[in-house]
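Consider a protein example.
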Amino acid sequence: MNDVIVLATGNRHKCEEMQAALRGLPVSLRPLADFDPLPAAIEDGTTFAHNAHAKAAHYAQLLGLPCLADDTGLVVDALDGRPGVHSARYAGPAATGAENCAKLLRAMAGRRNRSAHFACVLTLAAPDGQALSWEGRCDGEILADHRGSHGFGYDSLFLLPELGKTLAEIPLEAIGSCSHRGQALARFIAEFDTVQRWLRQRMPAASPCPGDQGRKQAR
């Protein structure tokens, strides 16, 4: 049986991108949606690394399975690094992607310096609390209007100058190393043999995980 890694995100778009990038690895990738509802991880760190580790470790300990999580954000030079670690809730705790983009456009109105970058930290945590991390970065510029229908979040406002396209103009199957998350995932894939050995040293004997048990009892 393949090893199991849980994709520790409730964001459907992230999950799809991660599944597409990791397809072909000798591992069973399971989204959080496969399990019974779990308490959310607390993401109150001031760095992407802190929050990625918090999510991965939280779900790994609850499920008894290795969990892969990322924390990603948009860092805008003219805004002193904002929205940064608050990118997903830039316009408020329950803000939509459209609301976050609208706030960004207001903040950037009239600014000549449009440079920005996306940062991503990807963390794999084992149930014993040990973790490994990889990073990715994507440099670009903030547009004054949306372009493209792919992607999510700020993708339609983020231009890659060398390609002349926004992240939202690049299909999921082609985004690969163009994106910050794609870069981090590529580094994870490159080290996967080592990662697999590391995990097997830390995993207890296979046993049903909480979400699976709950579903079997409910049938």
User: Anything to note?
Assistant: The first strand starts at residue 3 and ends at 7. The CA atoms of residues 70 and 122 lie 4 Å apart.
